[in-house]
TrEMBL record:
It comes from Actinoplanes octamycinicus. Its EC number is 4.1.99.3. Its cofactor is FAD. Keywords: Chromophore, FAD, Flavoprotein, Lyase. Binds 1 FAD per subunit. This is Deoxyribodipyrimidine photo-lyase. FAD binds at residues 203, 215-219, 247, 250-257, 346-348. It is an enzyme of class 4 (lyase). One of its GO terms (molecular function) is deoxyribodipyrimidine photo-lyase activity. One of its GO terms (biological process) is response to stress.
Length: 435
C-alpha cells in the first residue's frame, strides 16, 4: 500500500530516507499560511526548492503534491484520498515540529519518524554521567566523530503516483528582500556541492579570510534539506586533508546546536545561562544603526550590509557583528537574533539561537566573557580591507587596511567621505577606538 512522505526540511531525492524503500510513496508538502517564521527571503528560497523538487519527481514518473493549509489537516485529507494511514516525516527538534508530530499521531495516523535533518539524530550520542545532551562542544565533537553513522538512503529511480490524486498548484514564487541571494533547490545545491568538493582541501586556511570568501555557502541548502548533511559529512570524512577535517568539525557544530535545542527548546527566547542575561540596554537608535549598517565601524557595517544584500553573511562577520551588538553596544541578543532571522536564507532556530547565545555569553561558550575587538578582528581577517570595500561603497577609494579606521584618515579626506563617525558605545566608551 502507498504511504505518504510528509516533506518538511528535506527537499531532495538524494539520501532522503523518506522517499526510499519499498512500495509506493506519495510525497507531500504543505504550505502553512500561518507559518510566520518564514521571512520573505526564505519564502522565496522555499518556493524555488519546491519547484525544483517537483520537476525532478516528474522526470521520475511521480509528482510532488502541494497543498496549502494546516499541515495536519491536509495530511489527514491526503491520507484518506490515497487510502492509507502510514505517514513518514523527518524528525526535527523545534517546538513547531514537535507539536506537528503529536498532532499527526493524535489524528490517528501511523507516524514513522525518519532521520535526515542532521548527520546524527539528537540524543544518538550522550555525555557520560547521564545527561541528555552535551553542553560543551569539544567532547560532543569527539563522540560525534567516533560514532557510527547510518548508511545513506538509496536514491529512488521511480516515484509512482496513485491515480486520481491532484498534485495541486505551486503558488507563484514570492519576491524575497535580498537582491543577491542564492537560488534554492536541489539541482543548484548539487552543482555547488560538486564545485565545493574541489575547494574543500583549502578550507582550514581560508575559511576565516573575509575577502577570499571561500567557504562552502551551502548552509541554506542544508537548512531546507536540498543536501543531506550526512552526505557532506561522509564526503569530508573520506578526504583526509586538513581542510576537509576542519569542514567536518563545522558540520558537527550544526548537529551540536540541534541536540542543544532538543534539550532546551526555548533557546530562541530564553537564556541558557540566566545569570549572564542581565543588564542589557534598550537603545532603539543604536539598534537601528546596527541594522542599517551605519555604525561607523566599517567591518561591522560591511557584515550587516552583506546580510541584507545576499541573505547570508560570512561566519566571521556574524561573530563580529553579533559581538558588537551585545558586548560593545550592550544590547540584548534577542533583537539581534530576530534581525538575522529576518534576512538569513539559512536562518533556523537551533543555529541562529545557539550562535547568538554563544556570542552574547548566555549560551554554550566556555569563555562567556571573551571580547571581540572589531578593529583587531578586521585587521586579522580582512587585512587588506577588500571585504569592507566590497560592501561599503562609501569607502571604496580608501586603500589597504586604512579602510578599517576612517576616523584616523587626514581630516580633509575624512570630511569628503559620506560615511558616519563611529557610534558611541555607552557601555565601555568605545575602547575599540583606542590602540
Ligand atoms: P561553512 O564555513 O562552509 O561551514 C560548513 C557548514 O557547517 C555550514 O554550512 C553550516 O551548516 C555548519 N556551520 C558552520 N559554522 C557553524 C556554526 N558556528 N554553528 C552551526 N553550524 C555551523 N548557521 C546556520 O546554518 N543558520 C543560522 O541561522 C546561523 N546563524 C548564526 C548566527 C550567528 C550570530 C553566528 C555567529 C553564526 C550563525 N550560523 C548560522 C553559523 C555559521 O555562520 C553559518 O552556518 C555559516 O556562515 C554558513 O556559511 P557556509 O555554508 O559557507 O559555512
Amino acid at each position: 500500500p502507498a504511504r505518504i512522505a510528509l516533506l518538511t526540511r528535506d527537499l531532495r531525492i538524494h539520501d532522503n530516507p523518506l522517499l526510499s524503500g519499498e512500495g509506493e510513496v506519495v510525497p507531500l508538502f504543505v504550505l502553512d499560511p500561518r507559518l510566520g517564521g518564514l521571512s520573505a527571503n526564505r519564502q522565496r528560497f522555499l518556493h524555488q526548492c519546491l519547484a525544483d523538487l517537483r520537476a525532478t519527481l516528474r522526470e521520475r514518473g511521480g509528482d510532488l503534491v502541494i497543498r496549502t493549509g494546516d499541515p495536519v489537516a491536509e495530511t489527514v485529507r491526503l491520507a484518506r484520498e490515497v487510502g492509507t494511514t502510514t505517514v513518514g516525516v523527518a524528525g526535527d527538534v523545534t517546538d513547531y515540529a514537535q507539536r506537528r508530530e503529536r498532532r499527526l499521531r493524535d489524528a490517528g495516523l501511523d507516524l514513522r519518524i525518519t532521520p535526515g535533518v542532521t548527520v546524527l539524530p539528537p540524543g544518538a550520542v550522550r555525555p557520560g554521567g547521564g545527561g541528555n545532551s552535551y553542553r560543551v562542544f569539544t567532547p560532543y565533537w569527539k563522540a560525534w566523530e567516533r560514532s557510527r553513522w547510518r548508511v545513506p538512503a538509496a536514491t529512488p529511480h521511480r516515484i509512482a503516483m496513485p491515480d486520481g490524486i491532484a498534485p495541486g498548484p505551486l503558488p507563484e514564487t514570492p519576491a524575497g528582500e535580498s537582491p543577491d541571494a542564492l537560488p534554492g533547490g536541489e539541482t543548484e545545491a548539487r552543482r555547488r556541492l560538486r564545485a565545493w568538493s574541489r575547494e574543500i582541501s583549502r578550507y582550514d586556511e581560508e575559511h576565516d579570510d573575509l575577502a577570499a570568501d571561500n567557504t562552502s555557502r551551502l548552509s541554506a541548502y542544508l537548512r531546507f534539506g536540498c543536501l543531506s548533511p550526512l552526505e557532506l559529512a561522509l564526503m569530508a570524512k573520506a578526504d583526509d586533508s586538513p581542510g576537509a577535517q576542519a569542514y567536518l568539525r563545522q558540520l558537527a557544530w550544526r548537529d551540536f546546536y540541534y541536540q542543544v535545542t532538543a534539550a532546551f527548546p526555548k533557546i530562541s527566547t530564553q537564556a541558557m545561562r540566566p545569570t549572564a542575561d542581565t543588564g542589557w540596554r534598550y537603545d532603539e537608535d543604536a539598534l537601528r544603526h546596527w541594522q542599517d549598517g551605519l555604525t561607523g565601524v566599517p567591518i561591522v557595517d560591511a557584515g550587516m550590509r552583506q546580510l541584507r544584500a545576499e541573505g547570508w553573511m560570512h561566519n566571521r562577520a556574524r561573530l563580529i557583528t553579533a559581538a558588537f551588538l551585545t558586548k560593545h553596544l550592550g544590547i540584548d541578543w534577542r533583537p539581534g537574533l530576530q534581525w538575522f532571522f529576518r534576512w538569513l536564507n539559512d536562518g533556523d532556530v537551533p543555529n541562529n539561537s545557539g550562535n547568538w547565545q554563544w556570542t552574547a555569553g548566555t549560551g554554550n561558550d566556555t569563555r562567556p566573557y571573551r571580547r571581540f575587538n572589531p578593529i583587531r578582528q578586521a585587521q586579522r581577517f580582512d587585512p587588506e580591507g577588500g571585504y569592507v570595500r566590497r560592501y561599503v561603497p562609501e569607502l571604496k577609494d580608501i586603500d589597504g587596511g586604512a579602510v578599517h579606521q576612517p576616523w584616523r584618515l587626514p581630516e580633509p579626506v575624512r570630511r569628503g567621505l559620506d560615511y558616519p563617525g563611529p557610534l558611541e558605545s555607552h557601555r565601555d566608551e568605545a575602547v575599540w577606538l583606542r590602540d
